[in-house]
Amino acid sequence: MTHRLRVVAIVACLSFALATPGSGQALLYSLFERYVDSLRQQTGIPGLSALIIKDGQIGWERGFGAQDLERNILAAPDTPYVVGGLTQTLTAVLLGACVEQGRLNIDAPIREWVPDFPVPQATVRQVLSHASSGGTFEYDESRFAQLSAVFEACTSKPFHEHLSDTVLERLGMAGSVPGQDLGNPSAAARESFDAAQLARYANVLDRLAVPYRVDRSGRATRSDYPARGLTAADGLVTTARDLARFDAALDDLALIRRETLNAAWTQANYTGAPLPTGLGWFVQNYQNEPIIWQFGTVTDAYSALILKMPARRLTLIMLANSDGLSTGANLKSGDVTQSPFVKIFLRLFG
Questions:
Q1: pTM over 0.90
Q2: φ/ψ (deg, to 5) at 264
Q3: Which of 48, 54, 310, 339 has its CA 20 to 30 A from that of 222?
Q4: Mean pLDDT computed over 206-211
C-alpha cells in the first residue's frame, strides 16, 4: 500500500472511531498515539518524542522507538534532539524584544549589520518572513542565519549567551543547549558560560538522540553528523518538554508583548498577496482557523515540528532523530497539511 493510501485508510478508521458514542479526549489521545507510531514505522523514523498541550497543560506525551538503536535506549518526552529551523521561533522572540526596547528598527536594511548580505534592499522584517527581494516568499535558512549579527548588535552579547540567559535559563529549559558545539567549548564559550552551565550542557549532549539516515527500504544507519554551533536559523538542542515551557511562555506573554506576538503570527504581505509566513513562523488557515507552525530539518539526521492552534489553546510538538517528519511533505513550501502526522492531528483535534 502506498504512503498516501495508508494515510487515507487511517483517516477512514478515525472517522469510524470518532462516530462511536462515548468517544472522549482519552480516546482521541489513544487514537493519535496509535497512528503516530504507525506513521513513524512507515517513514522509518527510529525515535520520536511528541506531546500535546491543551489549555496550558501537557495533556499527552510519549516517546516512540529508540533514541539510540545500538544501545537500545528508548525515546522519551525529555530526550534531547537537534531541532534545526525551530530555532527561528526563539530568534523571532529575541528580536521582537529588541524592537520593544527601542533598540532595533525592524524595517531597516539588514545591510546595516551585514554589509555583504546578498539582497541589498532586504529589511530585517523581510528576512524574518523569508521574503525575496521582490517581496515574494523564498524560504532560505542561510539568509535567516544572518540575523545573528543583527541580534548581537542589539544586545552586545554573543547570540548563544543571550538566548541562554533570556530564554533557556529564565524558563527552566534544563534539557536545552544553545549549540551542539558546546560539548567541546571554545575559549570564548568558556567566558560566556560558567562551569556549572557547561557541565549541564555536556550532560544533555551525552543524552542527545543519535542521528540516523533512513534509506528507501526503511533501514536506518547512524549518520556522521558534525556538531554545529547556534545561529539565528538553527543549532538549538532541546526536548519536547522544554519546548512546552517555551510554548507556555509565549501564551502567557512572559517573553514578548501581545502586539509583538500578534505581528509574528500575522501573514506578511509585501506585494498585495500574503506570504505563508509571519515573523519567524509559518502562518496559514485551516478551515477558517489560523494555525501557526514551524519545522526543522537536518538532512539524514533530525527533524522537528511545532504547530499551534491559538483559538483552541492547542499545541503539537514532535521531534525525531531522522528527517522523516519532513520527508515527502515539502514543508518549506508553506503548507503544513502536507505532513501525514499533521493530517492525523488536525483530523482528530482540529
A1: yes
A2: -65, -30
A3: 339
A4: 98
